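quick one if you have a minute, typing this from the bus. theres a chain ive been looking at and ive put its sequence and its fold in token form underneath. please have a look and point out which stretches look like helix strand or loop to you. anything you notice is useful, everything is just below.

***
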Amino acid sequence: MYHPNMFESHHHMFDMTPKNSENDLGITGSQEDFETKSGAEVTMENPLEEELQDPNQRPNKKKRYHRHTQRQIQELESFFKECPHPDDKQRKELSRELSLEPLQVKFWFQNKRTQMKAQHERHENQILKSENDKLRAENNRYKDALSNATCPNCGGPAAIGEMSFDEQHLRIENARLREEIDRISAIAAKYVGKPLMANSSPFPQLTSSHHIPSRSLDLEVGNFGNNSNSQAGFVGEMYGTSDILRSVSIPSEADKPMIVELAVAAMEELVRMAQTGDPLWVPNENSVEILNEEEYFRTFPRGIGPKPMGLRSEASRESTVVIMNHINLIEILMDVNQWSSVFCGIVSRALTLEVLSTGVAGNYNGALQVMTAEFQVPSPLVPTRENYFVRYCKQHSDGIWAVVDVSLDSLRPSPITRSRRRPSGCLIQELQNGYSKVTWVEHTEVDDRSVHNMYKPLVNTGLAFGAKRWVATLDRQCERLASSMASNIPAGDLSVITSAEGRKSMLKLAERMVMSFCSGVGASTAHAWTTLSTTGSDDVRVMTRKSMDDPGRPPGIVLSAATSFWIPVAPKRVFDFLRDENSRSEWDILSNGGLVQEMAHIANGRDPGNSVSLLRVNSGNSGQSNMLILQESCTDASGSYVIYAPVDIMAMNVVLSGGDPDYVALLPSGFAILPDGSARIGGGSASTGAGGAGAEGGGGGEGNNLEVVTTTTGNNGGSLLTVAFQILVDSVPTAKLSLGSVATVNSLIKCTVERIKAALACEGA
């Protein structure tokens, strides 16, 4: 989303002109700075005239409507919280301040009260229904307990009058505890080698004679965290379902014993993989550990079987110390919503299909979940990897926890497997002062022949999906979370930010911006985007989305354009160039060469590149107005991002004063910067054992209308740069998309790419 006057030849595409005035930031914005959009707030034009006019004399014409501006809505909402029933004097004062008719204000408050009443009634109905269901279940339990009760004296059936209420309750609680003990004992028995029945598992390695009663897995989902029978974690605007969701169903009762057996074996394997060195992990000439696959299959003969033909092995191991305690780390990993948010650059879509166990003793120890997830690289040139797996959490001795994933491919209706996870996950060791040591293991088998040649070196080194990327992302996000929870404003923060609440609101808004960007930059098919089959360009992928009734996005038709290319410049130099406000005019076409000034700066990590900024673009043209840009830059060992979005001046004033950032409309654009894989980053462990799909197999990807750049591994540590724009091309969601809009977006992104290449080439000259 960009300012209209910056692209005058297509002014009709960028209808972004709200009525703003002088504001708390000391920024002068003309009445045509930005357009504030809210599809839900409309009122009649001149309602007072309509009301007073004789019905018989009213012209027979269609009523005209107009939308309230975002500022009007925010002011009305704020006043409603303090006074839902304003009197005539208050309504007149509001109408004068907001340039509305008193009757418009009156109607708005009437509608708002009706809406709140309906919401309250629905909420009360849900509570009453839930209480009713609980009482009915409790009643049935008491009936069952009474029917099975025996007299303590004679051993015969007990009469109801002979048993007190407390005694009845204790008997029921004892029965529940007995079932819980049976369940835990059944899972614990796996560690001492009691196997399952031979016909309970499709894997020949899991044959045995012991059977877990299916009732031991029929557990009610508890209240810990945000667990539910069907949890979904959608990053940004992901609403759709991909192929894996259409092909996978909830596991049957017959499958559950096998899932438990597989999870316990995977846990044992993960712990040994994380703690064992030579000969399982063998260092190479670059001091990078390589997984010895022959030793691996000798050490772990059970598991999910041999590697299928056509798949290539990837294994890596990485450790670090993060600024977060082990309890919060476990909750992030076991709550699908938090997991997909923290790792939004890696997890493009995640869903919990069924919770088999919620754990015991009020925590996640013993928790077992069947999940599906889609993993991505921030480029449309790298296909996503979809996995259907079980996640198991266990507390070990000496303050160590472990969370492991292992694929459940045998439960899929389709035998075709393009990616599967051998036991992968992390060990978390509790340290002092709220820190934790995390050791991460990633072990996958994948058919990556459709990866674009430009990204093959990166994927083959394990940096695209390996343990280093997971650990680096977790470390950076822990630092960001610690920064957002700071109760004071650090001295280094630059500032129109005057309160800790304003600081938190700005960081929350930036977090939503980053998540939204990540949802549109990769190759995921699980989003609300529609890829256009014909864009008139061979190197830019263009997608479209209709936005309606979402306060976090402007309503209308949005185009997302993305392209990836190689540039012979080190990733750090590219990152520093793109995040620097002083060099922005060299590549940002829509800022039209205006002077860019940083008005607010929040550091959210040890690296100075990890920060959130509020930028003001001062137009060099007196006929054009200023605009604000929210920007977050982040970097770690696996890659970097520079993400930004124009923001409404009045809305940003509300955020900086501690207001709710969820109603600020954003259309993020930005850059993802990755190493090209030719100069390996030191440390960690990796394996890229070749399978039936050779590393050089495949060509330019499947169905990707993107730029083909041929490079060699001797490119002196260049960068893989992905550029992605989201632009509102029509404020009417039902409008038809014009080819002119697509051509303009193509032209915009191509011109930006050329400017970046030229500017960096001049720097290196």
